[in-house]
Amino acid sequence: MQSVKDKVIYQVYVKSFMDSNGDGKGDIAGITMKLDYLKRLGADCLWLTPVFVSPMNDNGYDVADYYSIDPSFGTMEDLEVLISEAKKRGLGIMLDMVFNHTSTDHEWFRKAIAGDKKYKDYYIFRRGREALPPTNWISKFGGSAWEMAGESGEYYLHLFDRTQADLNWENEDLRKELYDVVNFWIKKGVVGFRFDVVNLISKPDVLEDDLNGDGRRFYTDGPRVHEHLKELARNTFGKHHDMITVGEMSSTSIENCVRYSNPLEEELSMVFNFHHLKVDYEAGDKWTLKEFDFMELKKIFNDWQTGMEKEGGWMALFYNNHDQPRSVSRFGSDSKYHKESAKMLATSIHLMRGTPYIYQGEEFGMPNAYFDDISEYRDVESINYYDILKSKGMAEAEILEVLREKSRDNGRTPMLWDDSDGHGFTTSVPWLPFAKVPGISAEADLASSDSIFNHYRKLIELRKQYEVISDGTFMMTDMENSHLLCYLRCKGTGKMLVVSNFYDDETEFDLDKLFYETSIDFRKCTFESVLISNYYDLAKVGEIIRIRPY
Ligand code: TEU
């Protein structure tokens, strides 16, 4: 397995990155056009969200053919060109494998529905109970997780949209088909894979009602998941010693993530977990409005950083992806302190123990969408929840307010390359409206002497330069501080302190107190010892450092 410790990965949400042919949708040739920009940033790999043939009910996470490129994204040749052009610049391409489910348009599912026994067993079909579905499980996108298959009285399981049918990983032929898919793409020259919700692939043999939940406790980190991942690795990427793999883990635990990512287990290089991105959910419910709980965020970071380190696990570091609101709007400021907070957030996460991911547009502080009308949304989950909240009696204005904060479309608006009408993204109408925060674009950011882009570039350089960043131990300090996230990284004689103010007011950090707590002495640090900061001057007063907004 390739060492991922000094790598930085850039996520491309293909549909919103760059439209090369003027149809309003981003495509593979568009990514090739922007390779020099990505090279300049300094990331090592690009993870592309799914580009395979799909009816696009969930923007490609509903795959109908794992071996072909969806025409809206381009051709196989476009992908081959991207892989080789990226390689010339020292960039690797990672593909997104959606193996928990296929689209109901997939040939396997069509055959299954037509009654072909072989393919029926590729999916999870069960008989209903009278007029009720087989269990009370709830789909992640709302409503029952079961859909009636024609008139047969049988239902198929779908943990996501009803057009995303869950695969039956208990079937050996199915597993082999999936290994063939992975090996096909390895031959094309990709350097790694992201595996979509891969901790949900193993369901129990007997499916039962969940009396006090939505069913997730039965299939999350399910009974044979580690066995399946080991077998997948052995038959595909594990045979090559330099591949990078990351599993997306839904509602997982530290204990399982250690097993998924400890090299001795021979499963994956690293994991995504989402606990830190639920600190603005009221009682675990995403569709609520709540200030983020900073103390909870600190606690989760501390638990995961130390828990993973202790047992040799490795994690992805991120605030943003295509399923999340934009971090600068969510945890920082997209107005007065836009630059300061974008840089603070970047620093706070990049210098932890793990592999940082940068989500397109994050490198110049892309904000939330700020849509005011339901007609502007495209995301299947957002539209489902609009209806669900409406049926629960929530007022229209309040629903729109919740969507403004929580919708996945916040992270999916097209790239703001410049300030022109099509924002350098398209020459026609974009498939999803642009974010409504004027003045923010890659071009404007790069033109300024204190660009957010350069801050990210510097963070990437530092990771390559200092082992204390790529391989140091992690220790949180000042746990009780309600404004500052503070941690130490240590490797041999190398010591690094990271102090991030998550608020727009001024506070102080006491180096003297830190010395008495840890016996690590930063008190003689001079301006030259500051590796990176979002303010030019280190405002130092004796042992007390003045910490300005964000
Ligand atoms: O997401 C899995 C997932 O559970 C979420 O992050 C999901 O978006 C969230 O629970 C909604 O509140 C992955 C993909 O990243 C996502 O885009 C897909 O829609 C989903 O799997 C299904 O393939």
Short description:
By secondary structure, the protein is an alpha/beta fold.
Describe the structure.
It is built from 18 helices and 21 strands. The protein has helices spanning 28-33, 35-41, 76-88, 107-113, 117-120, 172-187, 216-219, 225-235, 254-261, 294-310, 327-330, 338-350, 380-391, 396-406, 442-447, 452-465, 467-471, 511-518; strands at 9-12, 45-48, 52-53, 65-69, 92-97, 101-103, 125-127, 146-148, 154-157, 164-166, 192-195, 244-248, 270-272, 316-317, 355-359, 473-477, 484-491, 494-501, 507-510, 540-541, 544-547. Strands 13-12-11-5-2-1-15-14 form an eight-stranded parallel beta sheet. A three-stranded antiparallel beta sheet has the order 7-9-8, with no helix packed on it. Strands 16-17-18 form a three-stranded antiparallel beta sheet. Helix 9 crosses helix 10. The mean pLDDT is 96. The structure holds 1-O-alpha-D-glucopyranosyl-D-fructose. 1-O-alpha-D-glucopyranosyl-D-fructose binds at residues 58, 61, 98, 140, 160, 196-197, 248, 250, 286, 322-323, 381, 408.
